[in-house]
Amino acid sequence: MPAWRIELGGVVQGVGFRPFVYRLAHGHGLNGWVRNGAGIVEILVSGGSIALVRFCAGLLAEAPPAARPELLSRRVVDEQPPEGFVILGSIGAGGVMSGLPPDLAPCADCLRELADPADRRYNYPFINCTQCGPRYSIIHALPYDRATTSMARFVLCRSCAAEYADPGNRRFHAEPVACPDCGPHCWFTSAGVLQHREAALAACTAALRAGQIIAVKGVGGYHLLCDAASDSAVQALRARKPRPDKPLALLFPADLEILLRHVALSAQALARLRSPACPIVLVPRRPGGALSGAVAPGLADIGVMLADSPLHHLLVEAFGAPLVATSANRSGAPMVTAPVAAERELAGIADGFLHHNRPIERAVDDSVLREIAGSARPIRVARGLSPLELRLPRPLARPVMALGGHMKSTIALGFGDRLVISPHLGELDNPAALAQFSHMAADLQALYGVQATRLLVDAHPGYGSSQWARRQNLPMQSIWHHHAHAAALAGEFGLSTPLLVFTWDGVGLGPDGALWGGEALLGTPGHWLVVARFKRLRLQGGDAAAREPWRSAAALCWQTGSPPPAGLLPPGGLAEAAWASGLNCHETSAVGRLFDGAAALLGLCRMASYGGQGPALLEACAGAVEPTPGLDLIDGDGVLEADWAGLVPHLLDASLPADRRAARFHGALVQTALDIARASRITHGTTDVGLAGGVFQNRLLTESLLVMLQADGFTTHLGNAIPCNDAGLSYGQVIEFLGSGDERV
After folding, report:
1. What is the pLDDT of residue 92?
2. How much is the average pLDDT of 575-584?
């Protein structure tokens, strides 16, 4: 009988793929075996020719929902397996990994068992099967078997061992499988009182109802939870963390009626909320709900999520209403993952702690999506969606590691024709964040069995990632910030023909030494030409300008000779004198700084307590985009310069309400981008237009611009898998490196 040897890559471990292969083979009457290798699944199968063809097709078409198999090879062999089909032990530790499984929210089957008083896992906070549960956060080595996870310390009871060994059971080789008799348990501590298991959950729920702030250990770290309807609880959380203004995510019960009472949901947003990744999704808030106004001050959207673990599910269902669920760390510091560290780091923030004894191998924050132009676009890729694995347009000659930027940091490891992007790491502003960054760099290489031979870094020498790279004993290559943004978009969509990319963000060093952020780049990865930019704004105060929007507003006024509005400037006149003399000034074309200045001139945000606060408040204030003439475009040596000076009188026009001024500001930028695209089409024949950079997280601006570009005959591109903000830089750095041809040197 013919025999085939098959290898599959992609996400095929930790998702019930081997038992699926076992059942599929038995269904077709085939002989052979299946086993895990280092990130792949290997199959030897023999039988009738028609059955083999159907079996191979079924491997891809009928795979479990959480699996994403890729056929790597299939060849005819002489080897004949014995009668029957079996699952063999794993091999290949230390090889090159692929398809590392993400952490997945509890599936419908497990939730049914969790709610069934007759089931032995009734109300068990760590229920899971092959289709759900922790994966990436508990792996400490590969291949993915129980012995190489943090579940190795929990010896299976007879009942769990029987399920684990039964190929017909959905818990067959579900590596985190456990029950109340043999698995992890939780405990609650508050004011010196210690309670375990079900009593711990009850005590935690009671504390939340009493308005307390509780630190709860989840899948990838701790959350801080409190009653989202209690102004006093939310304000106390903000004061203690401290987090004065930054929006707080909310955890909702599964009851759709409760969710719809508070937020407006499209079908797609609801599907993403209920997906196995269980991300936070930014959605419009309904007016008149019971939520505290302190949840997201001044914003129209709020971040909502459903329970990403059985423990969170039990808590929020028992509470029966939305809870604030924000990462349990002091602002700017990495997430905590262990009970002792949590009680030390969160002392003075949390009133109580709900711990559990399943170790977390690596911290993983929540993923965040925002629906823009009909798709839920990533703002932050983390739990449930990472590590994100992609194919490169062509193979790398040698492995490289790209270190991203400074804000919204991620690391990308490229090897062969594959690339893996780390979960969100955040800002690299302190030693603890840099230590986490360093650990992730080592961890990625160890997990995937790949050692980078070169580091790709942002060209800005002051970034934490660039400074870390200089301490490593590896060759380094600098990539310009906005070239990486543009390359990320081209790489995601596989574009090899010239593309016009608007790279609008808040900061990034350009090849001419200025701070870019308002350029339109034309070309392909490795070959970008500036065809347009915004007129440069002279800002005083160095890095403080990003935290103090009044500086951008003042510069807009001073540079156009307009008197700043009352109350904008600090007393004393020193800032204007420093600006006039050029002391500690820099020039920037960044559209993000224009948004900052507009928000400050409208009185929305003069001092920012979190990144992007001014632009977010300006978008919420506008509510819509008002059609407005574009800015004057001045041709200078083949580069169009958009003169923002015409915006200033409109922003200062107190006869118009703030929302009209904000709407017109958005409208002017949209029309300006359209005018630039039209000019590029005339001059260069460009019909493909992309949007990259953090400014395009703004739904009003982006949706309006996409509609106008498409109506004018352009083909448009906005990232679906790669965030448009700085979280996409690491991916873009690898694509830019490939496009430059330097990988062949």
Report:
1. 61
2. 91
pLDDT tier at 443, thresholds 50, 70, 90: very high
Task: Name the residue type at position 353.
Answer: F
Output the CATH code of domain 3-87: 3.30.70.100
Give me the residue spans of the domains in the chain: 3-87, 186-356, 387-484+730-740, 499-718
CA distance 511 to 680: 22
pLDDT at 335: 87
CATH topology identical between 186-356 and 387-484+730-740: no
pLDDT band at residue 91 under the 50/70/90 scheme: confident
φ, ψ (nearest 5 deg) of residue 423: -65, 165
Separation of alpha carbons 608 and 595, rounded Å: 12
CATH topology for 186-356? DHBP synthase (3.90.870)
CA atoms within 13 A on the CB side of 474: 21
SS3 for 401-462 is EECCCCCCECCEEEECCEEEECCCCECCCCHHHHHHHHHHHHHHHHHHCCCCCEEEEECCCC
Q: Would you say residue 745 has pLDDT above 50?
A: no
What is the distance between the alpha carbons of residues 519 and 695, in angstroms, rounded to a whole number? 12
CATH for 387-484+730-740 (3.30.420.360, 3.30.420.40, 3.30.420.10, 3.30.470.20): 3.30.420.360
- Which residues face 227 on adjacent strands? 323
Q: Where are the alpha helices (DSSP H) in 471-538?
A: 481-492
Whether the pTM exceeds 0.90: the reply is yes
CATH topology of domain 499-718: Nucleotidyltransferase; domain 5 (3.30.420)
Mean pLDDT over 220-242 rounds to 96
Contact indicator for 67, 13 with CB cutoff of 8 Å: no
Euclidean distance between CA atoms 510 and 159, whole angstroms: 62
